[in-house]
Amino acid sequence: MVKEITEADFSGTLAKATVPVLVDFWAPWCGPCRAVAPIMEELSAEYAGKLEIYKLNVDDNPGIPEKFQIRSIPTLILFKNSEPVERITGALPKGQFQSLLNKALG
Amino acid sequence: MNSYDAIILGAGPAGLTAALYLARFGAKFALVEKMTPGGLLLQIFEIENYPGLIMPKGYELADAMEEQLKEFTFDRYQTCVTALEHKDGKVTLQAGEEALETKTLIICAGLHYNKLGLPDEDRFTGRGVSYCALCDANFFKGRVVGLAGNGNQALEEAVHLAALVRELRLFMRTAAPQADRVLQKKLLALKNVVIHKEVAITALHGESELEAVSIRSLQSGETEKFAMSGLFVIEGMRPVSEFFPRELVLDADGFIVTDTEMRTNLPGVFAAGDIRSKLCRQIVTAAGDGATAANAAYSYLELADA
Fold first, then answer.
1. Taking CB atoms and an 8 Å cutoff, what residues of chain B touch A71?
2. Which end of chain A has less Cβ packing within 10 Å, N or C?
3. Are strands B212-217 and B75-77 parallel, antiparallel or unpaired?
4. Closest Cα in chain B to A95
5. Are B132 and A27 within 8 A, CB to CB?
């Protein structure tokens, strides 16, 4: 399941993670974000144990998108050991997310 | 290989309407969509011109169309189509890893956003360059931004953006906007909008993020450079035509030519919605096309079985 992450628990969650973390930066009124959300739910089940997926509402938590210079949503950032290693902007078909993740997770 | 009476490509308003009609006819069909249902509806904030519904959000209408299909059983494939062939009165297609076969095909694959086609465009996408002001305007509050485009959507998004940003520079290739008068009037009333007519954007500049944009006058050839942190590209759309069979008749702009019953030149192949060659591209006309195409496909199947 894709879990909510906020400014308050962002660093802590990333630091504690034992697998890479994918964060979906989204907003409720953003159409393309809504297109990505169900894909993230499916990927979360498919990559269970290999990847944790979180979503961060950019309206409620503006500091984190500012820190990562996010200017478009949806943006997805893959973190390994709390460091951003891969960044995807825009709604993509599920297959493209899978190939990007497979490559990044090696 | 999975075999169907009908396959619908695309789950925007045309595809979802075609699905509703085929489901009610009792046809054995599949719906192929690479993303999630709704199509371009998901890019619209509020809809002001769908009869009977007062200002629904785009996603609310998409959700309602999807909800209406819940009671029916049909197959869905969430993937891209990579190959399509029309042969001996049947269509075979590759949808992800699945090979599918169908007696009729309804193409409702819709449109893509046009890009500027500049070398650094992809590098700056998500780092200043955006194709959706509705999604990304909030990241540019109080900043200077640009918008490339001159149509209804461009002007709508410009009005939305201008309310948030410090200054908006609107770049259009034409001498005047090609948009509704109501929108043009709204735009002209805004104090923080500068309009550059008959110009082309020639370069994007910046290190890790967009910092400036160069333009060239189409009249004098003179160039200018403006500092800005965002550029919204709202330059119209083109049909999603990558998988069309070569025999399919298209118009000069690449849209599928049909008759009034949504029949293409290929027997058993229909097209509906924005991908079809027509003048009026609206949600309501897409829905109408979807219903007509489903009806025509079902008549075709009945005749074939007779």
1. 126-128, 130, 136, 139-140, 209, 229-230
2. C
3. unpaired
4. B79
5. no
